[in-house]
């Protein structure tokens, strides 16, 4: 159940209650693609850095170890030792981005596994079955993520099929949740709005999926080639046509500034690989911009990554030490950077929620963006 506590402009401060606990929104979901955060971060660490909800990937877990294996292990929560909400994406994005050779039909998509090349078929029913086996809190509908700059006729056909697939996802999830051996019979389905950068297609699709009265809605197919301004414009015109009494999830976005702008346009849920991926490459976020800890100027820098930061790395270790670990290819250095970045994102979301509650979101957003672009590090 989704409940708006207060609003500040279009920014919403809400709670989303699930069978695995309540999520305070706006929220950033920490990405654990294969049931693990890349960078040697455990689920026990996630609690320490303020993670409320974790995201795992249907396609990757289907390929390895196999969703049937996860089901036999008691579902994803038990498998990875995590008792808070989990969202699984449908595998659609990976099917269309990772698989070079694929064949799209009304039934679904046939493609080759990126791991061993074996032929896999995935459609709405298969995606729902895999996600039911994983027993996540929130399952995402199977959709096609068309390129942002695709031809209009292609996008129209793709979105029409994505809608038909959503109807099939909804019917299949209802069936699966009624089966006696289903682990999570309270699994929720989020629909996904598509339409590339065509605002009329986006709006029409938003209206149609809103009628299905799903527990939540996502906006997909953004941050895939269009400019930030185009993305913000699509949010401006699309979000008002999604139900205000349901959470809105912007998929795969993004930078701290992207998040600040999207919250201002009514978005509740975010996920992105940036904090963990950048951390693994020694790029760390601070309120004064991003820094590369491999730079020689940090060799004897005894300050933490960010003064006043409460993350496990900043509590005890210096930039100089973490730089040494990274240069020596010690995994601990990568782990510290990922922990710091995820803490930074989760803590920023906490500040966002507080600013909305205080009615000061506009000034918080302005000062945060100015600070993030100051590069005073």
UniProtKB/TrEMBL annotation:
EC class name: transferase
Residues covered by the tRNA-guanine(15) transglycosylase-like domain: 10-372
Annotated binding of Zn(2+), by residue: 309, 311, 314, 340
Catalyses which reaction(s): 7-aminomethyl-7-carbaguanine + guanosine(34) in tRNA = 7-aminomethyl-7-carbaguanosine(34) in tRNA + guanine
Cofactor: record remark: Binds 1 zinc ion per subunit.
Enzyme Commission code(s) on record: 2.4.2.29
GO biological process: tRNA queuosine(34) biosynthetic process
Active site, per annotation: 89, 271
Cofactor(s) this protein requires: Zn(2+)
Pfam families: TGT
Keywords from the UniProt entry: Glycosyltransferase, Metal-binding, Queuosine biosynthesis, Transferase, tRNA processing, Zinc
Family: Belongs to the queuine tRNA-ribosyltransferase family.
Subunit and partners: Homodimer. Within each dimer, one monomer is responsible for RNA recognition and catalysis, while the other monomer binds to the replacement base PreQ1.
Function: Catalyzes the base-exchange of a guanine (G) residue with the queuine precursor 7-aminomethyl-7-deazaguanine (PreQ1) at position 34 (anticodon wobble position) in tRNAs with GU(N) anticodons (tRNA-Asp, -Asn, -His and -Tyr). Catalysis occurs through a double-displacement mechanism. The nucleophile active site attacks the C1' of nucleotide 34 to detach the guanine base from the RNA, forming a covalent enzyme-RNA intermediate. The proton acceptor active site deprotonates the incoming PreQ1, allowing a nucleophilic attack on the C1' of the ribose to form the product.
Name the record gives this protein: Queuine tRNA-ribosyltransferase
